[in-house]
Structure formats: C-alpha cells, structure tokens
C-alpha cells in the first residue's frame, strides 16, 4: 500500500502562475498551520460498489474527473507576501489500485487503510492535497476512496467530483466538464476589492449587534479534535413525506424548513434565551464556481430568537427571511466576521451548532452496479454538526458529527433520536395556524419517564416518628455518654434530658404546644442546645433569632410568628419587643417536675426559619417532624454516623444547616461539640477546635472552606467527613481540599423549604466532575427539571428545578398566598406537591444533577440566601428612590458584591441611603455600592436589562473653568486624550479614566503643542490640568521627568487615612499601581517605591534585605509615625514582606501587608536567572501582556517595537532609561534567588492569580505560612500579568478598602 502523501518540490516552476489564496482558503491555511498535527482538515468519502465494475474504465473515468478539477492539482507555499498557490497538472491525484481480495476480511483492511490515511495530517506546503484509491475486495465488491484537503474543495465540490466520475464511467464522451478554476480565483479577487464587500460587512455588523455569546449543545468548549463522532441514519419515506407536507403547508422550501426547525431544536436545547447557529452557504448560485470543485463554502451565523409563543408558520417565515438576507451577503467570510466582532482566540465562537442541509446530494448512479456513498470526514468539527444529506425525495440521511471532547456516543445517539422526534412533531403541527413551537416537547417519552421516575426511584421505609422521639431514645439508651461539649464543659445525655425536660415543662406553662412557636435568641452555648431540645419536647416549633439583625426586622418576624415565649438572655443589650414573654437562662428550672410532656406527632411543626422575602418582608418556613426525620435518618444511615462521631456545631441557628449540626449527633448517640460564638468566621479557631476536640464531622459554606484551607493551621488535618452546601462548590476548591486535608468531602444541596438538603454528591479525591454536581436525591425525595410548561426536560438541558417528596415544608407561616405560589400540585404524580426552587439545573446522563444558578431575583452570598426584591423594597421605602434594582456582580465564590441602582427622588445621598437600609436589613444585605440612573436599560420586550446596568463609577462634580492660557490648552488636550467633551481645571487625568497608554498620547500632544515633554513622572506627580499647567509654566519639560524617582506619588488622599506604600515588581518601576491607587475608597495617599537600579549611575544593591532597609527608610521619611500599609505585586511582594520584617524590627506597626501573586524566594532558588532577553520579556508582563502569548518576541528591538505599537508607556522610554529597567529586572531576580525570608509576626494577605500557574500548581498562598503569623488567601480569576490591570483592580480595591478601614481611626 502506498503512503498517504508524497512530499513534493515546493518551488513553483517558471511557467506556473502563482496566485494568492482566496479568502475561503486563507482561513483554512492559517488554521492548519496553527495545528499542523491535526488531520481534521481532510475531507473524505468512500463509494461502496457492488457489481461487475469495469476497473480499467473506472480508472480512466476517475483520473479524467480529477484532471478536469485543477483544484486537486494545487500546490502551495508561504512567501513574504503571504501564501500563494499554483496549478501543477502533474500533481493531479491518479487512482491507486489496491487488491485486497486475498485478505481474510478485505472490508476491514480497506477501512483500516482509509482511516490511517484520513487521520494522517497533510502539510499543504509540502504534501499533495488529494488522493484517490480503488480497493478491490473480491467477489465484485469494490470501494472507491477519495480524500481531499479542505483547501482544495468543499462538500459541494466532492459531490461534483463523484457525479462527474460516474458520468464519465457511463459515457467517456459525456458532456459537463468542469469550468476553469481561474474564474473562481478572479471572482474572489474582484469581491475583495469591491464596494459589495464593505456593504456586506456593514450588514453583518448591524445584524449581529447585541448577539449573545454562542454556545454549543454540550455546554463546553474545545478545539477541533483529530476525528469526530459520526452518527448516520436514513430517514424513512414517512419522514420525507411529512417534511414535504409541512413545507407545502408553510409555503417554504423544504431545506429551509428543515434548517429553521433544527435551529429551534438547538435553541430549546440550549435554554430559553436567543441562540446563534451556523449555516453553511455554498455560494455557487450565479457564480463562476457553480460547476467547479473548489473551496468556496462559507459558514454564516443565524440568530434564533426566543419566541416560544410564536406560531410555527411565523417562526419559520422569520427564519427563512433571515436565511435569504444572509445569503445575499453570504460571500463575506465567517473568519473575517470573527475578527470584526473580536471573537478571535480564547473560548469565543461566532456560532454554536452547525446545521448543514445538503440537498444537492443525490443517490449515486454507477452504471451496471449498486453504489452507496459513505461520508468519512467533512472537515473540522469544533462543536456539533446536525446534517441532512440527500434530495429529500429519493433519500435523506440524518448525519451528526460531534467533537468527542464535548460529546459521547451516547449523547450523539440521544440527539439523533430527540431531534428526529422533535421534527416529526413540528411537521404535524405545521398546518395548524394556532400551533406554536413550544407545543412540541423536547424530551422523548422515554427520556421523560427516565428523568421523572427512574432518576427519582428513592422510596425507602421510614419510621413514623418524630425528631423529639429520636432524641429521647438516645437519652434513654446512653444516659451517661457525653451529649454535648462547650468551652470545656460536658453535658451528658442524662443532664440534657433533665434540663430540657424542666425547661419544656416551663414552656408548656407559657402555652407552648403543637404548632405553636417559641423564639430562641441565644448565642452558641450549652443553653442554646438545651433550649432547642426543650422547645421540641414541649411540642412546639423553635424559631431561631439573630441577635445582630436590626430591631425592625426582628420585630417584623416576631409579629409574623406570634411566639408564645422568647428564650433570650436578660442582659444581652438587645431591645426586644415587650409583647413577648421572655425567659432568661438564669430563670430556667434545673429540675423537672412530674408533669408529663405532650405526645408529638410527625405532622407537627418542628421548627420555623425565616428567610429573605422578595416583597420586602422575611418569610417563615415551617418544617414538620416527618420532613426533618427523613433528612436526618438518611444522613445517619448513608454516612454511617454513630456514637463514635464528634460533630462540630458552628453554623448560626438561623441558617438551616444548623438543624442537622444540632440534632444529628443527638439522635445518633454521638457528641455535639458547640463552637464559641463567632468562631464560624475564624479559620484558625475552627482548625484548633478540630484538633483539640477530635472533630470527625463538620460543615462549611464553600467560600468559608476556601478561607479555611488558606489557613496554615488547616493543613494536614484528618477528619472522617466534611460537608459543604449553601453555595456552588467549585471544582478547583474540591481539588485544593484534597491536596490539603485527609477527609471525605460531600456536596449537599437543598433549600430551607425542603428540610435542609435534598441531594448529595460524593466529591471525593477521585472526582473529576466540572462543574461539581449537586448529585442524587435523598430518600423519599424527587427532583424534577422542567420547562415553562412543567414538562420534563432531557439530560443536558437547563430548566427549572422543582422538589417533591416527604421533606417538603408545610409552607410559609401565615402566608397562604406565598405558599400557593411556590408549592404547587405535582403534574406527574396526582395528589402530590412540588416546590419551585427558582434554581436552574440540568441532569447528567448518570442521573446526577448540576446546579447552574438562579432563575429569579434570589441569590446566595457566603451561603446566606438573599431576595434582591427585599433590598429593592428597602431602597424605595427609604424615600431616596422611586425605582430600584439590585444585582450581584458575579465573580468567584466569596468575592461577589451587591450593587443597588435607583431612580433618585431628589438629591442623592449614598451614605444616608446606606444607613437607612442598614437599619432595616442585615449587614450582608446592604449593597456595596449605589448607582443613580436617569435612564434605565431595557430589553427588546421592554423589561429591565439587568446585564446592561453600568458598573459603579465615581461621580464627576461641576467643572472648574481654566484660569490661564496653559490651563486652557491643557484642558483641551486632556479632553481629546480621554475622549470626553470637556474637562475643568481640577480634572484629574487618571480619575477620569486615563491610564499609562493614554498618558503616552497626552504627553506626545503636549510636546507638539508646547515643544516640551514634562515626562510621565510630572504627570504622575501633577495629574490635574491646573497642577500640570503650573509645572509647565515653572519650566517643566526642559529636562523631562520620566517617572523613575526613588518615590513617586500615585495618589493623594486625606490625612486621617494612613498612606499605602506599593513596591515595584521586577522591572523596578511602580507605575503599574496607578489604577489601584486611584481606586481605593476613601481616597488615601499611595506612594510607589522604585528601584535604585533604574539609575545607571547608582551602584547595584547587595541584597533584598539591603533594599528593604533602604525602602523602609523612605517610608519612615514620608510617614514618621503610625501604622504602615504595604503592598507588592510579583517580586514586589517579596520586597514588601522583607520591608515588613525590617519595619517591625524598628518598632513600627504594620497594618495591611498585601502580596499580589508573589511567592517566597525559596520557590525561585532553583530556577535559572533570566538572561537579557528574558529580562526584556518580563517587560511584557509589567506592561500588562501575557509573555507566553508572544513567544516570537525574542529581541530588544522586537519587544520595544511591540510595546510602542501597543502604545505602552514602557515602549516610549528613551533607550538609556529602558537600559535601567532591564538592569533592574536582571538584578532583582538575582537578589531574589539569594534571599532568605525573615519571620513577620502579623497577618499577610495573599491574592493568587487563579487563571495562571497551570504548569506550576504548587504556587499556592500557603507557601507563605512559614514566613508570617497568619496568611489570608483570596483567589481571583486573572493571569499574573493582569493583576494590576483595570478589571483585576476593580476586584482587589474593595478587598483592600475593607482591610485598610480596620486600621483607620473611628
């Protein structure tokens, strides 16, 4: 068997005419060059032939067809002007004859040969682009194999080649030879130079404005794999007839009907929003390429609107019109569109699934034989292609090609069955004028049955008992065993029995009984546990109260719940309403009387927990004994909780996780260890409790788990099991957990309305799920993922999550209206109820559930459930706003912020508004920022467009008019550089959005206008119009200040706020902190410390400690007294830590010590020192670029030119100054490798670049643990080079504000 491709001479002969590649070819050329090992650009098919084939005649026909197609004889090479191509007639692929008739299984050998060839990459600059073979299988069986690189032809061209070869076999003199390739090339060149191209570009820009991000059906992103999963099935005559009738009823061509309805399927599968699919455009009609095998095909984006209520006819008509308009502008390349829209690189796509209807394929007729076509490869598949091949009359095949990195064979088969069913149902409705697309269910009947019933087969026998009875059974079984431990004190089950019985009797005297409520407002303590058990034994439901909540909120809850008693300290300093009888612990009886306690029934209320309410009032969830017993008994059984366990109770009682923390150990005969008040906020205290008390089981909200793992004390802990819930568990956090601790990890999910948790997932060390699922339903529980019509959705489709089963709450206390709204009849199980969670989820194929966020205005921050509507109501109720909206600026867990937007009723006072809200709501519900709006962004249907609400911004005050000619001129230059209409004399260049890039433009403009360059240093020191004008009038610019002084002022603030000293990274300059300095609120002075190595006349420092001592001296000179705040990025972090050690040795207090993605010196000791080129490449990172993204920049000239072209301030430094920067990089890196850290006896904040260090996963915040008394860690989703940029600063500045404020005077 001959090899796949023969290397050829790449020099064009003198007689050949080299032509540029067409636009269609150019995109493929560069794609193949970027992925030279990827064979996905090979297209191929096999024609299986049964019958008496005249091999000689077929050989002549195949060779002549190939000779008539010059594109198959193309050769290509790269030149200084780009890639070119020319035709080499001797390069046409002649048919190879391969006799396999002697093989035992010739068909298998042929398939292996075709597969090996097809999966071998072709180098277009070296290899032949096409190959054809005829395998002789024996017994009048043959297979003709044709493989062509996509650069030479597209699918339409492959069909032309097949038809032509068959025609020539039937009649060697058959007419219909192909048109010349020159016409295709000339047409492409003419289009590129035409006005039509500009018109087409404008059309697509307008059409795609506001286009949503394109996503596939698999929910992920991957590059085209080497091969794809293929599924082919023939659609029977009944399907084709239904399609024809539907097309006739709709008055549209059947290919367009098929495209439109398949697009509707893609939109439905992807969710309820607008979708974007890709549609191939052949571009042959009325073109020179009509009869030319060549690469002409284009892929156009098609927007699929979310119009579930639109009649099918209207929807199809809309889609067909969009297709027709797109085709009129279809020559404009999809690759160029991606560039126009900024969708190059990363995980950005122009479209999601590809819908490829190919009506030009007709059954192959090869004279005297029976021939069947098998498509082997059609080109790269990024996501999934839903294809239909055939004329729709004689034949039509459904062909699905999918990227195996995103889809499994099971996924593909499921899509085939589901799409076929969806289309047939849509065809049947096409003739009904009142029918709409949403009438068509997405799930097949089998899928609906599987997700509704098979996934929810959770029936389990449950004793008809109560939580009270289970706790009392433990008291009777192990009376002398320790029931609970708090602050060194131990209470046995006998003690708990006695004390809780006595208090229960007292509560009975106050009126406590079945379905009454007793409020409990106690800090974590032995008394709190006694109180909760006593309330249950009295037959009542306990209502936990948060002592930190505002009095108005507590009063509303007490008015709503109408408790018969309040258990609270009498000296807690809390202003409780007088209407509720209060029993303080010192008044509780210690011994029980003879009065019998009431019998408690499973249907009685066990507890009431109030959650945030969307109407502005909190709502009380009533949970019955039957529900919580199911939850606790499942957990005890499933996780093997027994008397040997010691379970830590640290969750506030107002959070429903506390329910199992309190009672699971008591019903299992285990020991309940109660954490001190506020310990749940202190990772160090938790780690100490775990070690000292032998904790086996505890719970975290994921954001708190992240903080816990960052504490050095947590490393190496060993527990039996750790549970997380309350927020989505990030996969990276799961992996970090297992790298830090030895324990099982379990992810739980559930709302307060369903007895704490309803699903579970073992997030063990071997789990690689991304995202981490919320898992499978617990005993006697149902989880539904339904569409807007309450129909089941198939696996992989996002829908609304509903819960059913024994754990559902009774409802909301005293709010039948809210109960009826959220608890409804189960449409799939008559007589049962379900609860609408407001969460979005989707099934995995294994029956596990993935949580995907909220569908309403409810959010969770740090595990606390927040109804945004309650905050909005408080804003309007304040009198400062007539309209309000609150959103969460979504970021990583633990670093999200509430932002309030309002239509102000008058003069807007943010501080007064914040105070008003804080008086009504808990602190975690007070927005971090407020934005007053005059105009509200709305969607096309008039609803508030929350995604378009602006980010919080500083308000600009009234303009101060320029007072001098210099100020007037500078004000105009400021406005021009900043792109704003006008500025005043007090305008601050950086506060108005200027950065070092815009500063370059401003300084060039100043130099042209005044003939002098004041330099970046002068602009940093005097960033206002008036300040810079004064400097210019005083003679600045004669000797420009390049901003390389030992200390530069980056921001000026008020004297009562201590300044921040920021330390240069490796390059020695501190300009990079300008954005951060200007973003701190309240404003405070920020000084940048810069390297002495920048001055070529200065000697190099001898060590990091020597530098730290010098920098400490600069700090003391600027700030003789008071706490010192330090911050450093990269190498600057190493220096900042050394400075902190030095300053402490001098007796100075350190406030904030913040390190931005810096790692200790010992990490770098074994690394080679950077050479001059490596040092220069470090400038890319300092300028905000990722050096790894520009491997070609390997010389000083290339790097400086790149920085200049990017308008970087670094690139515009004079040569001698740039030498100083390179010197600083080289020397600082040398010193780092020699440094040994001293111990800093305070807290260190480390910000880790979460999107970096894939090749160095050991770079973690915990590396600083040996060098500081405490390490607080925060991870942000940025690269190392991005941490001082605008986006990262928007995340880091608020974190610093909070920490800095802790050290400010009250």
Give the topology.
Elements (H helix, E strand, L loop, with lengths): L18 E2 L2 H12 L7 E10 L3 H13 L6 E6 L2 E6 L8 E4 L6 H13 L11 E7 L4 E9 L5 H16 L10 H12 L2 H13 L21 E6 L2 H14 L3 H17 L4 E7 L16 E7 L7 H17 L5 H7 L13 E5 L10 E10 L5 E6 L7 E6 L6 H21 L15 H10 L12 H11 L4 E5 L2 E4 H17 L7 E5 L4 H12 L3 E4 L6 H11 L3 E4 L13 E2 L21 E7 L7 E6 H15 L6 E4 L7 H12 L2 E4 L8 H11 L3 E4 L1 H9 L7 E7 L6 H10 L1 E8 L9 E4 L13 E2 L3 E6 L12 E7 L5 E2 L3 H7 E3 L7 E11 L5 E6 L3 E4 L2 E4 H10 L3 E9 L7 E8 L5 H9 L10 E4 L32 H14 L17 H15 L4 H7 L3 H9 L13 E5 L8 E4 L10 H6 L6 E4 L14 H15 L5 E6 L1 H15 L4 E7 L4 H4 L7 H11 L13 H10 L9 H20 ...
Parallel strand pairs: 5-6, 11-13, 15-24, 17-18, 17-19, 19-20, 23-24, 25-26, 26-27, 39-40, 42-43, 42-44, 44-45, 45-46, 46-47
Antiparallel strand pairs: 1-4, 2-7, 2-12, 3-4, 6-7, 8-14, 9-10, 13-14, 15-16, 21-22, 22-32, 27-28, 28-29, 30-31, 31-34, 33-34, 34-35, 36-37, 38-39, 41-43
Helix pairs in contact: 2-4, 7-11, 8-9, 8-11, 13-14, 13-18, 14-15, 17-18, 19-20, 20-21, 25-26, 25-28, 30-31, 33-35
Descriptive report:
The chain has 36 helices and 47 strands. The protein has a seven-stranded mixed β-sheet with strand order 41-43-42-44-45-46-47, with helices on both faces. Strands 5-6-7-2-12 form a five-stranded mixed β-sheet, covered by helices on one side. Strands 25-26-27-28-29 form a five-stranded mixed β-sheet. Helix 19 crosses helix 20. Strand 44, helix 31 and strand 45 form a beta-alpha-beta unit. 49% of the residues are buried. The N terminus is likely disordered. Among the domains are: 168 residues, Chloramphenicol Acetyltransferase (2-Layer Sandwich); 220 residues, Nonribosomal peptide synthetase, condensation domain (Chloramphenicol Acetyltransferase, 2-Layer Sandwich), CATH 3.30.559; 91 residues, GMP Synthetase, Chain A, domain 3 (2-Layer Sandwich); 82 residues, Non-ribosomal Peptide Synthetase Peptidyl Carrier Protein, Chain A (Orthogonal Bundle), CATH 1.10.1200.10; 189 residues, Alpha/Beta hydrolase fold, catalytic domain (Rossmann fold, 3-Layer(aba) Sandwich). The chain is of the alpha/beta class. Helices cover 34% and strands 21% of the residues.
């Amino acid at each position: 068997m001959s090899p796949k491709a023969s290397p050829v001479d790449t020099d064009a002969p003198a007689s050949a005419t080299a032509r540029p590649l067409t636009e269609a070819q150019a995109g493929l050329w560069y794609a193949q060059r970027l992925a030279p090992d990827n064979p996905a650009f090979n297209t191929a098919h096999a024609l299986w032939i049964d019958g008496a084939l005249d091999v000689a005649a077929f050989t002549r026909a195949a060779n002549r067809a190939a000779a008539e197609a010059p594109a198959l004889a193309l050769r290509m090479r790269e030149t200084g002007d780009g890639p070119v191509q020319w035709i080499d007639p001797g390069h046409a692929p002649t048919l190879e004859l391969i006799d396999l008739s002697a093989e035992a299984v010739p068909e298998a050998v042929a398939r292996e040969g075709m597969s090996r060839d097809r999966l071998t990459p072709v180098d277009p600059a070296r290899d032949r682009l096409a190959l054809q073979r005829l395998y002789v299988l024996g017994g009048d069986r043959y297979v003709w194999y044709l493989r062509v690189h996509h650069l030479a032809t597209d699918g339409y061209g492959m069909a032309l080649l097949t038809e032509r070869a068959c025609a020539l076999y039937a009649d060697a003199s058959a007419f219909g030879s192909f048109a010349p390739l020159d016409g295709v090339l000339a047409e492409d060149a003419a289009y590129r130079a035409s006005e039509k191209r500009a018109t087409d570009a404008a059309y697509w820009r307008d059409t795609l404005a506001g286009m949503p991000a394109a996503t596939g059906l698999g929910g992920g992103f991957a590059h085209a794999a080497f091969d794809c999963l293929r599924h082919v099935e023939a659609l029977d005559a009944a399907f084709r007839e239904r399609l024809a009738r539907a097309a006739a009823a709709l008055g549209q061509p059947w290919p367009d009907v098929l495209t439109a309805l398949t697009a509707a399927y893609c939109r439905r599968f992807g969710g309820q929003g607008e979708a974007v699919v890709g549609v191939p455009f052949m571009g042959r009609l009325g073109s020179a390429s009509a009869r030319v095998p060549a690469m002409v095909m284009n892929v156009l984006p098609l927007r699929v609107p979310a119009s579930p209520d639109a009649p099918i006819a209207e929807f199809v008509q809309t889609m067909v019109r969009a297709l027709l308009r797109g085709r009129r502008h279809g020559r404009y390349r999809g690759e160029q569109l991606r560039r126009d829209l900024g969708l190059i690189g990363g995980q950005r796509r122009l479209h999601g699934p590809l819908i490829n209807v190919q009506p030009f394929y007709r059954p192959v007729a090869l004279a005297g034989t029976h021939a069947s076509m098998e498509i082997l490869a059609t080109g790269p598949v990024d996501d999934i292609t839903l294809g239909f091949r055939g004329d729709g009359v004689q034949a039509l095949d459904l062909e699905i090609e999918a990227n195996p990195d995103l889809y499994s064979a099971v996924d593909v088969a499921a899509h085939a069955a589901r799409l076929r069913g969806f289309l047939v149902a849509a065809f049947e409705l096409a003739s009904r004028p009142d029918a709409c697309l949403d009438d068509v269910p997405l799930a097949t009947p089998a899928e609906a049955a599987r997700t509704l019933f098979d996934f929810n087969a959770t029936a389990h026998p449950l004793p008809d008992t109560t939580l009270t009875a289970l706790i009392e059974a433990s008291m009777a079984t192990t009376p002398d065993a320790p029931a609970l431990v708090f602050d060194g004190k131990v209470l046995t089950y006998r003690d708990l029995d006695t004390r809780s019985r006595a208090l229960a009797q007292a509560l009975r005297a106050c009126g406590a009984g079945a379905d009454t409520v007793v409020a409990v407002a106690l800090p974590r303590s032995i008394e709190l546990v006694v109180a909760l058990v006593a309330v249950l034994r009295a037959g009542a439901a306990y209502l936990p109260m948060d002592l930190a909540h505002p009095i108005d909120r507590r009063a509303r809850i007490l008015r709503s719940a109408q408790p018969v008693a309040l258990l609270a300290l009498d000296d807690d300093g809390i202003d409780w309403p007088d209407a509720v009888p209060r029993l303080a612990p010192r008044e509780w009886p210690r011994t029980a009387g003879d009065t019998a306690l009431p019998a408690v029934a499973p249907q009685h209320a066990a507890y009431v927990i109030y959650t945030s309410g969307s109407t502005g009032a909190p709502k009380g969830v009533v949970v019955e004994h039957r529900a919580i017993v199911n939850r606790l008994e499942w957990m005890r059984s499933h996780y093997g909780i027994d008397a040997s366990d010691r379970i830590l109770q640290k969750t506030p009682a107002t959070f429903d996780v506390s329910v199992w923390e309190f009672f699971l150990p008591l019903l299992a005969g285990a020991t309940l260890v109660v954490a001190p008040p506020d310990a749940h906020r202190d990772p160090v205290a938790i780690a100490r409790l775990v070690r000292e008390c032998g904790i086996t089981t505890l719970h975290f909200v994921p954001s708190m788990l992240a903080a816990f793992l960052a504490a050095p004390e947590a490393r190496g802990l060993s527990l039996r099991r750790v549970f997380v819930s309350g927020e989505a568990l990030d996969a990276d956090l799961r992996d970090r957990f297992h790298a830090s601790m030895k324990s099982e990890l379990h992810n739980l999910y559930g709302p307060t309305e369903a007895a704490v948790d309803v699903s579970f997932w073992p997030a063990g060390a071997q789990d690689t799920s991304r995202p981490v699922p919320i898992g499978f339903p617990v005993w006697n529980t149902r989880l539904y993922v339904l569409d807007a019509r309450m129909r089941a959705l198939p696996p992989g489709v996002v829908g609304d999550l509903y819960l059913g089963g024994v754990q559902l709450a009774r409802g909301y206390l005293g709010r039948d209206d809210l109960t009826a709204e959220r608890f409804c009849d189960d449409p799939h199980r008559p007589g049962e109820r379900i609860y609408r969670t407001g969460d979005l989820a989707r099934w995995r194929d294994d029956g596990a559930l993935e949580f995907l966020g909220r569908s309403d205005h409810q959010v969770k921050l740090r595990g606390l459930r927040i109804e945004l509507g309650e905050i909005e109501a408080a804003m309007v109720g304040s009198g400062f706003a007539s309209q309000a909206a609150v959103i969460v600026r979504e970021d990583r867990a633990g670093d999200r912020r509430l932002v309030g937007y309002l239509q102000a009723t008058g003069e807007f006072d943010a501080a007064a508004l914040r105070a008003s809200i804080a008086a009504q709501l808990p602190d975690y519900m007070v927005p971090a920022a407020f934005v007053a709006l005059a105009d509200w962004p709305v969607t096309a249907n008039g609803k508030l467009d929350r995604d378009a609400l602006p980010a919080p911004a500083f308000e600009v005050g009234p303009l101060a008019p320029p007072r001098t000619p210099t100020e007037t001129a500078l004000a105009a230059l400021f406005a021009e550089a900043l792109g704003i209409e006008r500025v005043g004399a007090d305008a601050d260049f950086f506060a108005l959005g200027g950065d070092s890039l815009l500063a370059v433009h401003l300084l060039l403009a100043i130099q042209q206008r005044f003939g002098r360059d004041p330099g970046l240093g002068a602009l940093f020191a005097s960033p206002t119009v008036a300040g810079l004008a004064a400097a210019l009038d005083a003679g600045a610019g004669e000797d420009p200040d390049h901003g390389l002084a030992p200390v530069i002022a980056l921001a000026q603030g008020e004297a009562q706020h201590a300044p921040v000293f920021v330390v240069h990274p490796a390059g020695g300059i501190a300009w990079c902190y300008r954005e951060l300095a200007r973003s701190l609120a309240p404003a405070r002075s920020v000084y940048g410390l810069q390297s002495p190595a920048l001055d070529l006349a200065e000697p190099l420092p001898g060590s990091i400690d020597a530098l730290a001592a010098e920098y400490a001296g600069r700090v003391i000179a600027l700030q003789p007294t008071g706490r010192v705040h330090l911050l450093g990025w990269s190498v600057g972090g190493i220096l900042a830590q050394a400075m902190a050690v030095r300053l402490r040795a001098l007796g100075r207090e350190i406030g904030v010590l913040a390190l931005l993605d810096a790692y200790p010196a010992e990490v770098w000791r074994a690394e080679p020192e950077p050479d001059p080129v490596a040092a220069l490449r470090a400038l890319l990172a300092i300028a905000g670029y990722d050096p790894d993204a520009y491997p070609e920049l390997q010389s000083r000239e290339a790097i400086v030119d790149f920085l200049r072209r990017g308008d970087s301030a670094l690139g515009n430094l004079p040569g001698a100054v740039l030498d100083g920067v390179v010197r600083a990089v080289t020397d600082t890196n040398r010193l780092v490798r020699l440094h040994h850290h001293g111990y800093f006896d305070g807290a260190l904040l480390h910000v880790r670049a979460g999107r970096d260090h894939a090749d160095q996963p050991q770079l973690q915040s915990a590396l600083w643990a040996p060098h500081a008394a405490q390490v607080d860690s925060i991870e942000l989703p940025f690269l190392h080079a991005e941490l001082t940029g605008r986006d990262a600063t928007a995340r880091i500045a608020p974190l610093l504000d909070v920490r800095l404020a802790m050290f400010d005077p009250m």
